[in-house]
Amino acid sequence: MEEVESFCNRVILISPTFFGFDKQCAEDDKFQKESTLTSDEVNNLAKEEHANYCKQIRKAGISLQVYTQHNLKALDAVFPDWFTIQRGSISKEGLLTIFPMNHPNRRLERNPKIVEQLGRECRPAGC
Questions:
Q1: Percentage of the residues of the chain whose pLDDT score is greater than 90
Q2: What is the distance of C-alpha 33 from the center of its chain?
């Protein structure tokens, strides 16, 4: 079997404690679509998909770190796109960059536990 070079050695996911349609983000996010399902049905499907996704990641031998959604008003928290970690030529230990989010409710996704843990592992951007 051919060895594939990976640019990532870990995946970080947020469990969908309460996932749902976010009206504020739907204004400019083409992926936000209102559903005919109830909010409970949508949330249960998200939990099911998340569990299956975690199984597939682990089965592939990829390191997985799962955090709990810490703010129930952050309906999009399952997509942790408010930070990145760059390793390699930029920084050997890793460079943690935290991004501002366009909508105020997306800013609620920032999880201090994640920042604290990754901050111990990486160098904060701007330092």
A1: 22
A2: 19
